[in-house]
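SEQUENCE, STRUCTURE TOKENS:
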Amino acid sequence: MMRGTMTTTTPSVSSLKPSLSSRSSFARGAQNAKQLRDGGVVGRNVMAKNRSKGRRLVVRSEVESHETMKRENSDALGEILRKSSTLKKVMAANRGEIAVRVFRAGTELGMRTTAIFSEADRLAAHRYKADESYLVGEGKEPVAAYLDYESIIDVAKENGVDAIHPGYGLLSENENFARRCEEEGIAFVGPRAETLGQMGDKVVCKAQAKACGLPLVPGTEYATDDVETAVEFAKEFGMPLMLKAAMGGGGRGMRVVKQQSEVAQAFARASSEAKTAFGDGRMFIERYVEAPRHIEVQIMADGVGNVIHLGERDCSVQRRHQKVVEMAPAPCLDEELRKRLHDDAVKLAKHVNYRNAGTVEFMVDNQNRHYFLEVNPRVQVEHTVTEEVTGVDIVQTQILIAGGKTLPELGFKSQDDVQIRGFAMQCRITTEDPAMGFSPDFGRIEVYRPPGGLGVRIDGEVVVGSRISPFYDSLLVKLTCTSQSFEGAVQKMYRSLAEFRIRGVKTNVPFLQNVFQSKAFLSGKVTTNFIDETPELFDMISNVDDTQKLLSYLGEIAVNGAKHPGAVGPPPIGAEPSPPKPSKKTAELASQQSFKKIIDEQGPAAFAKAVRDHKGLLIMDTTWRDAHQSLLATRVRTRDLYQCADATASALDGAYSLEMWGGATFDVSLRFLRDCPWRRLELLREKVPNIPFQMLLRGANAVGYTSYADNVVQEFTTEARKSGIDIFRVFDSLNYVDNLKFGIDCVRNADGVVEGTICYSGDVSDPSKKKYTLDYYVDLTEQLVNHGIDILAIKDMAGLFKTPAGAL
């Protein structure tokens, strides 16, 4: 085995090449080692002294030209992406498909993206679509975690987020959340907190609408949680009534009451539902307009007086006030009425000096009279149909306005800059069973094959294997189809629904197929009573593989026990443990006496003596290297190790060492995980000040898979020592003495603890074995001791060590 030789054709550091974002490159010479650790890039020349021949060779990385070109191209793309916005990192304070929608918009604007997730959503697909993801609301209920805005803001501040997009639902209309973002200097991608207070409270919003002349349905002036107020209103204005939550939307906290005797009970239930969903049980009461059309106008404003509309949407296909199908533009709508709707929406937005995206909603009765309903001060689920017919990316526009752009700067100098082309409609694919009263279904997606083709858009974050949680909204994916006409969009949507294949959970796809075959729907004049008045929509042919689902259910029960709501039988086999809380703080661990402190203050010899004097067994833990290398293919990231570091430091206080660096650990971290191994070392060292860190050093092979120049290995070892490694386990699988001695020299020069290793490959208790005898190992040990090792390790390479051999 020759050490110190490198060729000029094939780089010897190929297994250690970093990405452009890595902080280190192993293949640098002695004079550049510190620079490599702090910020080197692939492609620089490497100077390596040939130890055996005393000459210097210049080695160029085989990816030099490729990486240089990649860097130049990346910079050029970055200029295009980043020129649109001054914001650098956006967080989606939401989950599911809308979070993914925000990430896509942010990425196209050259921004880094940040996801949040609850404990129940730790495996949700949306968190993996972002550049970073963080747990919020630890210990809280699944929905409450996403409502914990202080936790969300803390995460944003700690990770350099400069814009938060709330999506829809959850915190999207929370005035306090928006105000806290403003106080912390974080751009809230939505209206001002003051506007949310005005528009989010539907009673206050109605007062604003009345002030600027919009037509209103008779109703209460103020929100109330007093059931008697509802009873008295019913007596004065008559039936039917509409009960609506003062905060929120999406159909939650809404009831239509047709009988006087049902008012009190309906009010109590609606108020309780609103309290659970939005944290506010106040309601307002209004006269119910029967069988209206539900038309909403998409507005966009920049907060400096410029307001435009992006046309209207027809959202009349509803079930229990939850939209099912949305269309843009509204079909069969009188043109004069259409203009009045647009003008009223813009008038209200200007009246309140609105900023960002919003939706002004109206009812239209059978005499083409329109009544103001409410303002949704956020992006809507159905914004996709407006994007398709206008070509305007609503979410990107939201982000850009939040970053300070005005509408003229974004190309909207007047309303004429918005053109409506074609027709679009959206279906909400949900995990609900229409045959069972739209009861939610949950489980694992076994098959997922979405449709495609011209004019077909899918918004969602579903993959095969996705788990549908019982804790959240049942929206699975949004299907949007665009064509030149209403009829063309219907044809495309029906074809796309027929192509959809979803197995593992029940969906509303068969129900939607019936909707698109209904004569009432195809007329383009449906009202909000359409579903209730069309019972044939529920005559469905189910194509769900019930046998497969039954087998999966039985397998789940057999292996994991009964654990879903309403299940009977034995409990789950194993409850998921909670992460342990460290019993000692980092500062306390750093100040106490430890093996680490002995190494730092007294050196390797004193450490070796302390180990010899110790009474009892000492533990060398390999979880951070061998364990995840063997069990998890070394795919554990730095951030995951960092999260458990406090608990590790406390639980293993007093241990001999933590082995946490080696060949595969270094290589996979650098090349596959794109985690800088040097940074990993530094971060973990800060978290674990009390336990020595140990690494594997293969002599001239260092942590690679071939022989490196001596000066490279020496400088690598020195930098590893400076960055936090204390103990170097020096070994050679063939017990090649020269290679072992070279590794020992490198560690000695770096002032590290030398743990010389002999690899046990025979059976010294068998007298018939002539090569790997007891004398062989004793002689090898003596050579290592004489060369200056501090600790002797015996590595049983293949489990060959037998009890009788230990007694020799």
Summary: The CA atoms of residues 599 and 607 lie 6 Å apart. Residues 64-82 form the longest helix (19 residues). The two ends are 32 Å apart (CA to CA). Confidence is low (pLDDT under 50) at residues 1-67.
